[in-house]
Amino acid sequence: MAPAAFDAEAAKQPAADASDAGAPFVPGAKGSEAAKQPAADASDAGAAFVLESKGKWWHAGFHLTTAIVGPTVLTLPYALRGMGWGLGLAVLTVIGAVTFYEYSLMSRVLEHCEARGRRHIRFRELAADVLGSGWMFYFVVTVQTAINTGVSIGTILLAADCLEIMYTSLSPNGPLKLYHFIIIVAVALAFLSQLPSFHSLRHINFVSLLLSLGYTILVSAACIGAGLSKDAPVKDYSLSSSKSDQTVNAFLSISILASVYGNGILPEIQATLAPPAAGKMMKALVLCYSVIAFAFYLPSITGYWAFGSPVQSNVLKSLMPDSGRALAPTWLLGLTVLFVLLQLLAIGLVYSQVAYEIMEKSSVDATRGKFSRRNVLPRLLLRTLYLALCAFMAAMLPFFGDIVGVVGAVGFIPLDFVLPVLMYNIALAPPRRSALYIANTAIMVVFSGVGAIGAFASIRKLVLDAGRFKLFSNNVVD
């Protein structure tokens, strides 16, 4: 559901000028003080290059869809196993409705500030302005950095796992190991990362949207075929007999679902829109959630139906068990893995944009051309070093399913479930006794608790799995 419309006063305000996109921000500056900031900062290359504002609403829809609809949908059957059919599908629906609502609120807050001459293109600056707290600036940038790094590590790890699956199917006794494929993926991302701006990814992200629909259909068809075949596994949908384990597993599943729906970079995506952005982000959200409705429910239902509670954290692994023959045609599995691999490159590029913007805000000279020697060299060096660090961490810690849960609990829940409703209540100030204010407060309180418990459950599983891996292991731990 969409939030309440702007108040009449906000609607009368002129839209911010496009030159304001790079306005410097002082953490804690608010209201008229923030509005007095200079119109543009010529030294802010992060705004001028990485977050340039030229896109249409459908471009933002492509970016948002790539940020949300990715191969993490392959973990959805695994998330359902922690709650069972009824509760699992109910939570999947509720979190989807809440995130749509939250993102629409955040877009409203961005438009509210823009209408008053304070156009924000960075989440950290928006939060500090609205909440009037300098420490919030550093809190958001820290959490965003953790999200971006965590997703980048998971992306590289899963892409390398896809390559290894393809390689071992062709050469079962080949000499290449998982870390070799991690290096290959990192090199490919380093090459593609030289595209200078978020906006320049619009065509890649449109292809990413098509790829997500493609492998969703393929995986779902494979699960249905596996569930109906004579070699179908025994369908066991029972939960753990221990109440404490049931509780921990349920909150771990909620953390995974939060991370699947989360993105943590909506202000940066909205920044790619040519100003004024009023109303454009809602169209982008409708486009994105139309894809979500198809891409989330289909593999969730078919994957959990086919494999039940024993389903692995990546449902492709259940379709290709370690022993016995594959439960789907080789061509179908190969095409699915190829689609996943290609889309992972797009996701890695999207989630790296905030890190690139932070690094290049001061290291690149905005008065020179994007492709001048002065700017190409630091861009090449910093972005390559960043991806090398992510690749090193991916090789060390092959915990794809666990990384998803931890990132969801400690990263996406604060940024996507708590801050949007808090900022809306403060910026647009609905009456404290109104249903809107009470609902926003309830969402904030509930998901703060869910985040805390989910963080405990996710970290607990990470600790339990720690004994099952070796540095630079050749297997991704489920």
Automatic annotation (TrEMBL):
Amino acid transporter transmembrane domain segment(s): 54-459
InterPro entries reported in the protein's UniProt record: AA_transpt_TM (IPR013057)
Keyword Transmembrane part of the UniProt annotation: yes
One GO process term, biological-process aspect: amino acid transport
Coiled coil regions, renumbered to chain: none
This protein's record includes keyword Ribosomal protein: no
Location in or out of the cell: Cell membrane
Transmembrane regions: 60-79, 85-105, 126-147, 178-195, 207-228, 248-266, 286-307, 327-351, 380-400, 406-428, 435-459
Record's protein name: Amino acid transporter transmembrane domain-containing protein
Span list, region Disordered: 1-30
